[in-house]
């Protein structure tokens, strides 16, 4: 089996970039990047120094339920091109030593026993192993320090 690392959907990014409300019903905050540690979840590149970006609450689930985690993410303020689905971990994420990888069922709820802090070089292998389970529909990769959503991982 292979895996696919998937960036934030373009329709979601464009709605937010055009002033749409975030997961808490708020207008995203607009800031100017200093070029350090502002990863856009749509193009999967750091927002360069001097460029505008948005800080917003994001909930990568279709509806509210107890496992629908919501947290902060960054997004270029202006339209950027979505990162292509990738069979290997995107370069942006190689700067960090580890991430949380966690599986979710078709009902968008955590599948217990799938979550772990995984060293970055092992994420694709771990994702492949978890996605072999029939009760796992997809995975999230999240910050091991702050639990921020990074990307979705699906079967390739």
From TrEMBL:
It holds the Pfam family DUF1203. InterPro entries: DUF1203. This is DUF1203 domain-containing protein.
């Amino acid at each position: 089996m292979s895996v696919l690392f998937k960036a934030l959907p373009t329709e979601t990014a464009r709605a937010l970039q055009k002033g749409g409300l975030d997961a808490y019903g708020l207008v995203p905050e607009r800031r100017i990047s200093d070029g350090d540690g502002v990863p856009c979840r749509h193009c999967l590149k750091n927002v360069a120094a001097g460029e505008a970006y948005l800080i917003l609450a994001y909930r990568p689930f279709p509806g509210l339920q107890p496992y629908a985690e919501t947290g902060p993410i960054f997004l270029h303020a202006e339209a950027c091109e979505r990162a292509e689905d990738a069979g290997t971990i995107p370069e942006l994420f190689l700067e960090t030593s580890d991430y949380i990888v966690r599986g979710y069922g078709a009902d968008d709820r955590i599948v217990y026993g799938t979550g772990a802090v995984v060293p970055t070089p092992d994420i694709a292998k771990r994702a492949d192993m978890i996605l072999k389970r029939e009760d796992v529909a997809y995975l999230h990769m999240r910050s091991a320090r702050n639990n921020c959503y990074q990307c979705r991982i699906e079967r390739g």
